[in-house]
Amino acid sequence: MPKKVVVLGAGPAGYVCAIRLAQLGQQVTVVEKEFLGGTCLNVGCIPSKAMIAAGSLLHRLGEMAAMGITAKDVRLDVAKLVEWKSGVVAKLTGGVGGLLKNHKVEVVMGTGRIAGRSSVVVKTQDGERTLACDEIVIATGSVPIEIPGFAFDEDRVWSSTGGLRPTRVPEHLVVIGGGYIGLELGMMYRKLGAQVTVLEATAGALPGQEKDCVKVIEKSMKKLGIALLTETFARGYEHKAGKSYVRIQTKSGEDTIVCDQILSTVGRKPFSAGLGLESIGLATDSKGFLAVDRQMRTKVPNVWAIGDIAGQPMLAHKGSKEGLVAAAAIAGGKDEFDARCVPAVIFTAPEMASVGLTEAQCKEQGLQYKVGTFPFAASGRAMSLMETEGFVKVIGDARTDEILGVHMVGPEVTELIAEATLAIEMGATCEDIARTIHAHPTLPEAFMEAAEAVHGMAVHIYQRK
Ligand code: FAD
Ligand code: NAI
Question: What are the chain's domains?
């Protein structure tokens, strides 16, 4: 007998879970209050990467003189850019709608509330509808955090959502928060022509990421002309005559920065407001996450949680994987979330990507490890692309040679990390990668050379013994 399953939220966690449930023969209804595809497809991963691609193209045109290419009269039409980006989003969200339909998943547009262990009430445009079900999957995602003094009005103060539908390129953009979004969008706006100042509370950009990689990003920000103010907090702002006066607190005291646009990106928090968790005796932890077991089951046996609401890292691919695990478990499978690692990709300039342990984490865990690095400056392919900034770093277990972590900064590393993820997932050693033939000339050769460098045997750099 198929089970009746209600999935709350159609982001990359919820819609993937719904499709897999349908593939496994379950009777599925997805409830979505705003947009199919969730944050990721509508106001997150996809629109940001589309706009970042445009910014990079524009910037690159100005760098081609060394290749003998001069681009004249290059102009940016912001309205056209936003229209193109929206078209990309529409194609993908339309695709999700089509997939759900083809898999015979019922979609109910409205806000869902859990009304009991077997009941979800949906407030739709046409009134309330009650859905009886055997299982409930919570995939309600997350929302941006607001800080005092910087309420999102999507006019003077943008959240990431406002930052992805500009009507103009700001003259001076102040970005609060030098994390994933702050750097991705900050660098994008710089490439589109804005002056950019990033205010970061901690001692450096991208806290928690591999330090050596972050150094390359910070250097690149400087080269691009982005001001990064660390250990700096924004306290509030006043708006006068078309300008915002942002009050900041730095190590050396208070100051004011004048700008015409503020983008506040200080993190996201899980979203469960009005969800009716109390009706089934569920509560979130102090950070707003729902605790789950390895099958994504909450402490209520027929209620599951996946995606951003189920904990860090708040990444689309982590949520989708959790959706697949929950779907299989609901259909009676023994699947568990047993991934050894979740890759992270950051679309800065140059790009950054990581999987597995950082050196700092190896030290904290008392692991004996060896490191090999290979610079893109020594890669023929990187040179032919005129993108030689950055490196690949492989961290191997000093006793077993197993790969513990891989960190990359440089051209196309958001793609290159896939091989490293597979390597860790399959328990590969540095020697396994070193002995694998990598096609020439390609960027993945840098991963092979970094793995060789762990043993002091990289061929295309000189390693002093
Ligand atoms: P969401 O995508 O947030 O979807 C949840 C859905 O639930 C929403 O559609 C919401 O409307 C709906 N919902 C909520 N409550 C209810 C309710 N009561 N009833 C009905 N529906 C409800 N991650 C990456 O991995 N790579 C990236 O490059 C990346 N870039 C990003 C860029 C930006 C600017 C932002 C903001 C985020 C980015 N992320 C990225 C993070 C990624 O978007 C999230 O991790 C991902 O969307 C989480 O998926 P989810 O399904 O858990 O939640
Ligand atoms: P974030 O957690 O990545 O970064 C927030 C930054 O703001 C941190 O560096 C933090 O120290 C700083 N900060 C916090 N409070 C501050 C304050 N008052 N003043 C100044 N700085 C302050 O959060 P972000 O950038 O909002 O992104 C949210 C999440 O979305 C990410 O953590 C990630 O999970 C996801 N995301 C993933 C992307 C990707 O995979 N490429 C891209 C964008 C977002």
Answer: 4-144+269-330 (3.50.50.60), 157-266 (3.50.50.60), 344-454 (3.30.390.30)
